[in-house]
Amino acid sequence: MSRKRIINVLLKEWQFLFTDINSILLVTLLPLLIVGQLIVYVWLGVTFAGEAALNIGIFQNALANLQRATPIVATLSGGEQFQVLLLSQFNLFMLLIPLMISISVATFSIVDEKLSGSLEALLATPVKTWELLLGKALAGAIPALIVTWICAGVFLLIVNIMGWGYLISMVMTPVWFISLFLFVPTITVLSFLLGVIGSSRAKDAKDAQNLIVFVVLPVLALIAIQVTGVIWLTTISALLLAIGIAVVDVIVLRIAVRLFQRESIIVGWR
Amino acid sequence: MKIIEAYNLTKKFGEITAVDDLSLEVEKGEVLGFLGPNGAGKTTTIRMLSGIIAPTSGYAWIADCRTDGEIERLHESIGLLTETPGFYEKLSARRNLEFFAGFYSGIDVKVKVEKYLKIMGLWDRRQSRVGTFSKGMKQRLALARALLHEPKVLFLDEPTAGLDPEAAQEVRELVKKLSNEGRTIFFSTHNLAEAEQLCHRIAVIRNKLLVIDSGQNLRHRFFRREVIIRLDNPGGTIAEAVRKLPCVEDLREETDRLILVLAEPDKNRPELVKAIVDAGGRILEVSEREHPLEEIYLKLMREEK
Question: Fewer CB near the terminus (10 Å): N or C of chain A?
């Protein structure tokens, strides 16, 4: 029964999502902008800074990490090494895609129910809180996940079109695949759960959007510390991190259920 | 057989007591009118009984389910029409009902949605977005939603509030129809005439339960029964003859009528009629004064102040 109810919530949310032109544009254009942005950064970096950028201390550390993880990089020219270093950031950069989508989609999910007055009728049905929250989180997370994977394909396509295809094998390391198939799903679910929590605790969508910052900031920090060479994700550390985030997902779902106080939502918010 | 049982239900929001020590019982098939001014605790009581909010103290059983323990089973047994209909305005009427029906076990969603859209007269508009519906149509759709799973108990929170007279009448007709089908209905309203028209018993609440009884019993409880005799030939010795009867406790004369309070109105009426006829009175009509429910309600509210 739970599966049927979760799917029921999910299908209704999708009907809303895919009949709203603003949501469609958000889910399709925003991710492409993020991919385009990274490609532009790489192009700008290679064209205007190139090999000289490697003289900057922070990049030296990052390059040393990259060479340890993928020794073949050391055989490339300085400019190409810098290019691989920048392209390698995509595995973390793409985590921003589900985060951005969740900011806009998940944060409205409960707030909209409150505004339309449908929440009380919904809570009078036998739906359990966790079914409702998971259904809403998955309704946003699944399209966000698929779009992120499509963006990864678009990224590789553009890299080829730009004539950088020979560098792809050095970018598509095991960590790339772990990021794509473990990080992205777990971070996506996490961001949507936090979005839904925000939405259920907030008085309006703006309030809810503030909460999602708590996920965006760690991801930005992760990108920053990798690009500056403070850490470099290895296969093992990436795997452990992915498992850690999956555990956090389960904990956050439980917290979400606890924080979803039917009474305060119904009575305390008009 | 009792289907709603509430024992000492109390709900506090901080320092404010919204509902204080409310106990009541409702029989299966009964329509209970729940009356009270704004802020009297009607919606809070309905929310407690329907398991949406928990009481601060006390407990209730609805259709053999504890409202604070077996929420899922409780929600399978009740239908709730909330104060605001609350629909997904961009979705069609049919899709809205299908969505809500999708949470109940063991029902054929398509069949039930069709059945209730037809009953509520909305079948022709099934594909229209709810956003294009009038208030009355939304209210009928909300009633359909509350009935989809054939609940044992129906909670209606001010179902005619804010509707124009025609739409309100449509909703009342539907409630009457549901009542005739033998459903148990807990009906909150501000409209006293509506409560009297639709409900078997009436409960008046102002944070605590003030009275609960049938309209007729409430009249008898709050006002002495007054028998009105309309005469063709008032005056003369008729009033004097009546006043001498031992069963007459009070007598007032008003133009062409006598207004009497009798010791035992049903039993004393033949004796009274005989005395009037013997005194030469020609009786046009014998009736009993019906105090409007509003008088009882206002009296109760004044006493509470």
Answer: C
